[in-house]
């Protein structure tokens, strides 16, 4: 059973999360977490009732950046910019870090060892040289089947998954991770942890007539880019439905565009088109395909070019650059 402190954190999340109670028309009272990108709201919404899942947790953690002065995994100790830390097998360490490196350390100040050292949750490289101490707000949301956590990117794009982790360090770092998995309470550490599972079609992105699926979505509010880990599958509804696939996908919040990356294949009726990238502007109804070359094959022949405009509703092609060949079937 969760401790009184952990339960209090869960209650605080419901009371203090920005945008709490300002849910969508589908769930007007659902608790939410809100970021903002150039005036555009990025909102994560818990959709399941509390008798299904009561996991909407906020954690207040410390972030220490600066020089990694000591780092000994076997001894379970580290020191960052004068702050002594302890770690174990559950601590997340990114990269081959050595003393002298500039790092980002996330620590739990409420979990100390006998020597008074705070517990190290996460350690990774960091480009900032000047030491600094900040507060990290981490929100965890879990919506099990048949419910899904919803992340809204402005008015026109939504993403869905079962687990969301939202992290905010004021004016430094704001990120959202969305995927499948569970949120567990770790009694020994008196905190919650999101465990993501990389499953195909775990995350769905919906924009206009287009829907895409992938394994996990990682959004960085500083860049405004959401990376969807592949394999990616795409479907677009209409009189001539479109299906596609790629190795990954990027959603640009500012441009409201979807970009399929790597081994892109689009299939529409009898036409199959292959490219290295496909830049999709749903509001315009077009995709711009790039490759060396883009190759499109159908009953009426084959088209090749370096840049091709593809009309999403009917598959009409216009080669904008690098026409190589157009072959038509003999009568």
TrEMBL record:
Signal as UniProt keyword: yes
Signal peptide: 1-22
Keywords assigned: Signal
Stated name of the protein: OstA family protein
């Amino acid at each position: 059973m969760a401790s009184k402190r952990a339960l209090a954190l869960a209650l605080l999340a419901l009371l203090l999360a920005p945008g709490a109670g300002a849910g969508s028309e589908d769930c007007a009272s659902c608790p939410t977490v809100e970021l903002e990108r150039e005036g555009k709201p990025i909102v994560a919404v818990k959709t399941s009732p509390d008798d299904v899942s009561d996991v909407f947790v906020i954690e207040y953690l410390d972030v220490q950046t600066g020089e990694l002065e000591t780092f000994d995994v076997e001894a379970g100790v580290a020191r960052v910019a004068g702050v002594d830390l302890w770690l174990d097998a559950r601590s997340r360490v990114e990269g081959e870090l050595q003393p002298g490196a500039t790092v980002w350390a996330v620590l739990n100040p409420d979990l100390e060892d006998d020597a008074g050292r705070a517990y190290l949750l996460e350690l990774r490289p960091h480009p900032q040289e000047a030491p600094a101490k900040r507060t990290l707000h981490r929100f965890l949301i879990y919506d099990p089947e048949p419910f899904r956590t919803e992340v809204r990117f402005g008015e026109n794009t939504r993403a869905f998954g079962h687990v969301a982790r939202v992290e905010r360090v004021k004016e430094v770092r704001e990120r959202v991770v969305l995927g499948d998995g569970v949120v567990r309470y770790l009694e020994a550490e008196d905190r919650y942890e999101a465990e993501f599972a990389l499953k195909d079609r775990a995350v769905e992105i919906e924009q206009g007539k287009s829907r895409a699926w992938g394994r996990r979505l990682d959004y960085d509010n500083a860049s405004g880019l959401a990376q969807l880990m592949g394999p990616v599958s795409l479907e677009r509804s209409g009189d001539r439905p479109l299906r596609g696939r790629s190795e990954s996908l990027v959603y640009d919040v500012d441009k409201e565009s979807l970009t399929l990356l790597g081994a892109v294949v689009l299939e529409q009726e009898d036409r199959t088109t292959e490219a290295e990238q496909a830049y999709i502007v749903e509001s315009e109804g077009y995709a711009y395909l790039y490759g060396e070359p883009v190759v499109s094959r159908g009953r009426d022949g084959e088209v090749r070019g370096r840049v091709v405009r593809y009309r999403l509703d009917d598959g009409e092609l216009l080669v904008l650059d690098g026409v190589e060949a157009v072959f038509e079937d003999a009568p």
